[in-house]
Amino acid sequence: MEFNVVEAREMAPPEGMEGLHWILLTSLPCERLVDLKRIVARYGMRWWIEQYHKALKSGAGMEESQLEQGFRIENLLAVLAIVAVRLVNTQWLARNRPDEPVEPESFGPPALEILSAKYAAPKDGWTNRSVLIAVASLGGFLARKNDGLPGWQTIWRGWSKLMWMCEGLEILNEKAFTPRSIQGFNARVVLGNSLPIGSADSPTRRGRSTCVRSPSQRIALAMRFASSRRH
Predict the structure, then answer these.
(1) Would you place residue 189 in the very low, low, confident or very high pLDDT band (cuts 50, 70, 90)?
(2) Where are the domains of the chain?
C-alpha cells in the first residue's frame, strides 16, 4: 500500500507557544494545495473526535449499559450518538464562542427558565459558557474560579437532571394535570427502576407511565429535548 507524506508547520504561533509541526501519513491524494489543506483540516479535528468518544463513554456511559444483545446496543448507540454530538457542540461553543448569547429557541425556553430559577440568570443574559457551567453545576460541578470548563461526567449528569426537570415542568403544565387531579398524589420518577405510582388519577393508571425502566428509555427521554435544539 502506498502512502503520501504531508508535513505541516504553524508559521505564526501564539506568543510564547511553540508552533505545531505535524508529519502526516495518508492514503488520500495530495496533488493540489486544496488536497493538502483538506488533510490537515481533517487531522485538526482529531481532538474533537476524541471529545465525542469521551462524551459517549465517560459522559453518557455507553459502556455501562450492560446490554448484551447486539441490536439493543445498536439502538442505544443510535440515540446516545446524537445526544453526544449535541453535547460536544455545546462544549465547542462554550470554548470557542464563550461570550456569544444563547438563543432561547435554540437551547429550549423551559431549560433556560429552570436554570434561571435555580442559579439566577446572569446580568447580561445566558452565554454559551455560562449555560454550560450551569448545566454541569446541576451534575456536581463546583464552578470555582480556576476550575476551567467542566468534564463530561458532570456535564452529562447535569444535562440528564435538567431534562428530567423539563419533563416535570411539562407534565405540570399539561391541561390534564389540574390541581385537583394531582392533589394528595405523591408521584416519583425513579431512574433505572420501575416503581408503581399510586392513585387512580396517576399517569400510570391512565396509560402514561412516568417510570423509566431501561437505559434506552432514560436516554430517549433526554433525546426528546436534546433533539429540539436547532443550530
Answers:
(1) very low
(2) 4-44, 49-226
| Interval 108-131 mean pLDDT | 92
Helix, strand or coil for residue 154? helix
Predicted pLDDT of residue 105: 85
Q: Which of 111, 195, 200, 122 is nearest to 161 (CA)?
A: 111
Cell matching residue 148: 476551567
Rounded CA-CA distance 56/48 in Å is 12
- Are the C-beta atoms of residues 128 and 105 closer than 8 Å to each other? no
Closest CA to 200 of 221, 174, 180: 180
> What pTM did the predictor assign?
0.64
User: Where is 29: in which H helix or E strand?
Assistant: none
CA distances from 61 to 129, 164, 203, 212, 223 (A): 24, 17, 29, 17, 15
- Nearest residue to 26 (alpha-carbon basis) of 39, 37, 35: 39
Exposed, middle or buried, 12 (CB in 10 Å: 0-12/13-18/19+)?
A: exposed
Q: Is 9 helix (H, G, I), strand (E, B) or coil?
A: strand
48-77: b or e for each residue (b if 16 or more CB lie within 10 Å)? eeebbebbbebbbbbeebebeeeeeeeebb
